[in-house]
Design goal:
single chain; mainly alpha; ABC transporter involved in vitamin B12 uptake, BtuC; two-stranded antiparallel sheet; 1% strand
Length: 305
């Protein structure tokens, strides 16, 4: 029998910490005038630092949500953007923005994400059969896995239609800001603390179930035989993913495909700010430019198995 190499969590944490420092440092050096020195301390602490912190928290939130959803569905293509949770969050947040309540956008985004996640769970349950777990038969090419993705795409399409209606009805004075926010934008973000609080809350929700989630990732029916309350954990995972996605969308807008590849929002935002300086691109454009090829590559690799 082949023995797996022992895990080295300390070394992994050191590498991750060093990478985080490099990413944060690079984000602080990126500006609307291109790459360069920090310059004025006021710009550093009041403009760049909050933006980098918000981007880092947003990336972490979407990465955690993506990992939870991938484990729940046993599908590496699951992502808050792909399965419609991000779209639901966008609807909730933009409704508040259209009404002129920027402070309520976070609550609206979380409620919209929770509604989309609950709808996905309900429809998957009805389509695949009430007795069949959500992740059952979701090995590569499995029917349930494809059902979840297709339902997610449909939920995302419905959310996009609602967003189009909201944009049509929105007052002209708020329209430009709503469009830029919809593309995913960290420009002008100063309140990064709520995103970090949401990250801590999500981890606090999910961490106690980590062993049970590992068992569920190997098969919900198998996990149930070992005493895991599968239905309850499934609802709790969706709640945690909805909280993380809602907070991320409320902070940075609809940044897509981050859940497929980890927290690279800071890098994408740094490139978006400096690559075409003084013009700033929405960070969602860069994340999609990376995420779409990754999604297609994963799909093609699954198809060859």
């Amino acid at each position: 029998m082949t023995r797996l190499a022992p895990a080295r969590p300390v070394a992994a944490l050191v590498v991750l910490a060093a990478a985080a420092v490099l990413v944060l440092g690079g984000g602080l050096l990126a500006g609307s005038a291109g790459w360069g020195g920090i310059g004025d301390a006021t710009i550093l602490w009041q403009v760049r630092a909050p933006r980098v912190a918000a981007g880092f928290a947003t990336g972490a939130l979407l990465a955690v949500a993506g990992a939870l959803l991938q484990g729940l569905t046993r599908n590496p293509l699951s992502d808050p953007h792909v399965i419609g949770v991000s779209g639901g969050a966008s609807v909730g947040a933009m409704l508040w923005l259209m009404l002129g309540s920027e402070g309520g956008a976070a609550v609206g985004a979380m409620l919209g994400a929770a509604l989309a996640a609950g709808l996905l769970l309900l429809l998957s349950w009805r389509v695949t059969g009430r007795s069949q777990p959500l992740a059952a038969a979701s090995a590569p090419g499995g029917e349930s896995s494809a059902t979840v993705l297709l339902l997610g795409v449909m939920i995302g399409a419905a959310a996009a239609a609602v967003v189009s209606v909201l944009l049509t009805l929105a007052p002209e004075g708020r329209l430009r800001g709503m469009v830029f926010w919809l593309l995913g934008d960290l420009n002008g973000v100063v309140a990064w603390q709520p995103a970090f609080l949401a990250l801590v809350a999500t981890l606090a929700l999910a961490w106690p179930w980590s062993r049970e989630l590992d068992l569920m990732a190997r098969g919900e029916a198998w996990a149930a035989t070992l005493g895991v309350p599968v239905a309850r954990r499934r609802r709790q995972v969706l709640l945690a993913a909805a909280v993380a996605t809602g907070a991320a969308v409320a902070t940075a807008g609809a940044v897509g495909f981050v859940g497929l590849g980890g927290a690279f929002v800071v890098v994408a935002d740094a490139v978006a700010r400096s690559a075409f300086a003084p013009l700033q691109l929405p960070v969602g454009v860069l994340s999609a430019a990376v995420g779409v090829p990754v999604f297609v590559a994963l799909l093609l690799r699954r198809g060859r198995r």
